Amino acid sequence: MTMRKGTNVPVTADAVRIELGWRTGPGVPDVDASALLLTDAGKVRSDGDFVFYNQPRHATGAVRHEGKKPQGAACVDELGADLGRVEPGIERIVVAASADGGTFGQVPGLYVRVLEAVTGAELARFDSDDATVETAFVLGELYRRQGGWKFRAVGQGYGSGLAGLATDFGISVDDPAPAPTRTPAPPRTPEAPPAPAPARQAPAVPPRAPEPPSAPAPPSAPVRLSKVTLTKDSPSVSLTKQGGTSGTMRVNLNWTTQGFQSKGLAGRLSRAMGALTGPDLDLCALFELTDGRKGVVQALGNSFGSLARPPYIHLDGDDRTGAVETGENLTINLDHIKDLRRVLIFVTIYEGARSFAGLHATVTLQPQHGAPVDFSLDECTVPSTVCALALLTNEGGDLIVRREARYLVPPRGVSPQRTVDQEYGWGMEWTPGRK
Prior knowledge:
The protein is mainly beta. The chain is 7% helix and 38% strand. It is globular.
């Protein structure tokens, strides 16, 4: 259902996916989805009620930032919401978008959709087509109404970016923003949430005896909105300085099979049988521990690793499509930095394609306590089936992430894994493997 600004529709599903989408291309800034859980006063209770790329999961698990997924010439950033698990004190869930490196006037085809989580059925859609200089938007909101939930199309813009939007709802951020400038919002419909009632004052109870005032609770650290993009001019970042040296770091790989068909005999046979096949990519990691042990974590040969014991790196499974909800995920235990000397994260094409070009593959490194590091594999211009993506090195206790982005072309008869090994001097012995 396509909506006009200011209108609302009932949301009957208990769990929904909120899809923010746009068309990509040269000069189009990156777009990020976020959600704010608000009380009837229109404010968050704490910074924990802000769900976005640096804080991807609410403490209750009711609202989650699922991440970006390329879809051909477009991209979507998704949020998940289990409405039945939202705490009673939360009256609204604001769905917001922010533009990184430009304005929304440069973002074509911006929309937000609410989908039934299980079936994928569309419950609501709002297309935003009047943006100009805004750098953040409230696109819509889920709100309680008579024991159920509704979605309202908002379309309210901010000229002060994500920091200004977040601050306006009570979030304390690490980089103060100027006062937010907003485009006028449409009047609320009669079914929109009512204005907040005055806060009740608790009755004063005189103490039995004079007591010294208790110390105020220390303020929580402000939310960090910064993102890290490694480029040729700025190829490395210290996770120590970013605060990302404990907990875990999740590495996510996604790619698209949309419009892709295998070539050659395998492709002709597949199409004759009425099936479409796409490329199968694998997320891998070469590791070297401080005690000298070396190895690889990959789906090939079922070498999935472990988080609790060496190598403190774990691959959660083998995704053959790239189009599922999670893609491929590799997790590094940052509590064991002292045991890791170096880790090389790389991606291989197992089958179905001869190059990364056109696959729209993306990799995100997300420390549990720190800014995410994003990579795109769209720069490939050679017939490469293996990309050395990032090198993590322990330099005196400081974990450094260095952008490699090296598209390697394996010689005839040489595996992608052996090619990476030889390029980086890992010195391992390789045997043929299958999955």
